[in-house]
User: Which sequence fits this backbone?
């Protein structure tokens, strides 16, 4: 008898499976595609190791995923990022302030703005903001506090990158400050796992397989319940019994699996949880065109990326270079092919301005128009408290994990945090 069936072999399902296996459970992961990793999948393209768009780990060694690995007896080795840069609205390339020193020296702010920035950043670091800000938008807060010029552009870019939400009229300022506070207190913004994400996927898979199993090309079509209890799943016509079931996928995909007993309010919450979306451009370059080893931002269109192979050279063949870029966009607009194509062209032209040697150095290029980047956009209607809980009400032994449930953080970090929220919830329920 399997103790826990996990539906979905993405990075959060695998992490949770590994933690449960570490507790002594027999875990079965069922993944519908022929590969593990979900949205954190890694491919080999012409000997480049390519993530599914930009993939960094917030807070590095202080992150939830590092915490997961430590519980499994593994320490993630990180490659730190260098100075961040921004192509500002005036067309000039400037240092994008992340640390204290850059705040004082960057040309991004005027002297007056630097003083205001220092005060605000101090307040955010101390957490001197009320809970009510969670339901206030970034724009509303900027307007009320008369934040203009460089400082306004700075918070707009923080919303676009940290929250993957350039739509400041709906991004939650309270959630943004909570994330900024963690960065300011830990002194770590983002880091890259040396060797990429594939070794992490392997680590979790191997742990699960010590006593359990990971099955690919296995689509779960429905759950089985008896009374108020889930008792297993169906893969096509095969019934697989399990003591517990965890659904690990974005919440808007969940309603079709949820049994009728689940209260409507919860089902609606899952259904209407909107994800972030984006246009992803990855470039394999036949030569090195830049030494920048930090995050690079563009003010227009609001977007960011990095030369991943400058941070971890093992990702590109010797003498070549890997560049990845993400423009967060509206999740409804990205499905309109013509609109997405036009945005893509606009973004690419701006990138060619930012990096004048890029156009002639391209060996291959991948473009993705993604309606789902992160499972939830952390906006005022989708703050942590409003998202679906890890425990599914109305059905015993049924749980959720993933980057759209009620867990702290923003972007992909919600998913890594959710692993621990769901793990604790499962332990408490036993
Ligand atoms: C471009 C981009 C950039 C990102 N940047 C970052 C970043 O910098 N840092 C970060 O931490 N995160 C980042 N993320 C987010 C991160 O990738 C996700 O949070 C994470 O991969 C979600 O993992 P998951 O396992 O919850 O879901 P998924 O990856 O969506 O996995 C769900 C899995 O379930 C499978 N599945 C679905 N239905 C069934 C079924 N019926 N039966 C069996 N299997 C099923 C799917 O095939 C899939 O493999 C980024 C994402 C994108 C797209």
Assistant:
């Amino acid at each position: 008898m399997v103790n826990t069936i996990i539906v979905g072999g993405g990075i959060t399902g695998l992490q949770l499976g590994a933690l449960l296996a570490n507790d002594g459970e027999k875990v079965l992961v069922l993944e519908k595609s022929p590969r593990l990793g979900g949205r954190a999948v890694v491919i080999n393209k012409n000997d480049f190791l390519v993530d599914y768009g930009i993939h960094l780990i917030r807070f590095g060694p202080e992150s939830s995923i590092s915490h997961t690995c430590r519980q499994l007896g593994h320490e993630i080795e990180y490659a730190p990022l260098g100075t961040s840069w921004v192509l500002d609205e005036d067309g000039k390339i400037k240092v994008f302030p992340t640390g204290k020193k850059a705040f004082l020296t960057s040309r991004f702010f005027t002297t007056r703005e630097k003083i205001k920035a220092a005060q605000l950043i101090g307040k955010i670091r101390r957490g001197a903001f009320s809970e009510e800000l969670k339901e206030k938008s970034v724009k509303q807060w900027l307007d009320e506090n008369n934040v203009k010029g460089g400082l306004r552009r700075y918070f707009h870019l923080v919303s676009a990158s940290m929250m993957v939400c350039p739509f400041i009229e709906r991004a939650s300022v309270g959630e943004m400050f909570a994330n900024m506070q963690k960065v300011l207190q830990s002194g770590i913004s983002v880091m890259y796992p040396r060797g990429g994400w594939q070794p992490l996927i392997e680590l979790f898979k191997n742990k699960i397989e010590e006593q359990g199993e990971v099955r690919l090309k296995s689509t779960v079509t429905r759950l089985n319940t008896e009374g108020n209890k889930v008792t297993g799943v169906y893969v096509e016509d095969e019934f697989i019994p399990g003591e517990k079931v965890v659904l690990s996928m974005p919440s808007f995909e969940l309603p079709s699996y949820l049994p009728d007993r689940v209260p409507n309010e919860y089902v609606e919450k899952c259904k209407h949880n909107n994800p972030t979306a984006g246009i992803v451009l990855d470039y394999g370059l036949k030569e090195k065109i830049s030494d920048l080893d930090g995050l690079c931002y563009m003010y227009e269109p609001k977007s960011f990326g990095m030369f991943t192979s400058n941070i971890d050279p093992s990702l590109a063949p010797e003498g070549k270079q890997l560049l990845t870029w993400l423009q967060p966009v509206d999740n409804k607009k990205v499905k309109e092919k013509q609109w997405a194509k036009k945005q893509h062209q606009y973004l690419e032209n701006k990138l060619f301005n930012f990096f004048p040697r890029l156009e002639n150095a391209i060996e291959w290029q991948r473009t993705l128009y993604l309606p789902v980047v992160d499972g939830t956009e952390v906006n005022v209607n989708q703050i942590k408290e409003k998202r679906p809980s890890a425990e599914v009400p109305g059905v015993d032994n049924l749980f959720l994990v993933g980057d759209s449930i009620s867990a702290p953080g923003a972007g992909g970090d919600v998913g890594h945090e959710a692993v621990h929220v769901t793990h604790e919830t499962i332990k408490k329920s036993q």
About this structure: The CA atoms of residues 9 and 36 lie 5 Å apart. The mean pLDDT is 96. The radius of gyration is 22 Å. The chain has three domains: 2-77+195-273+376-429, 96-188, 277-370.
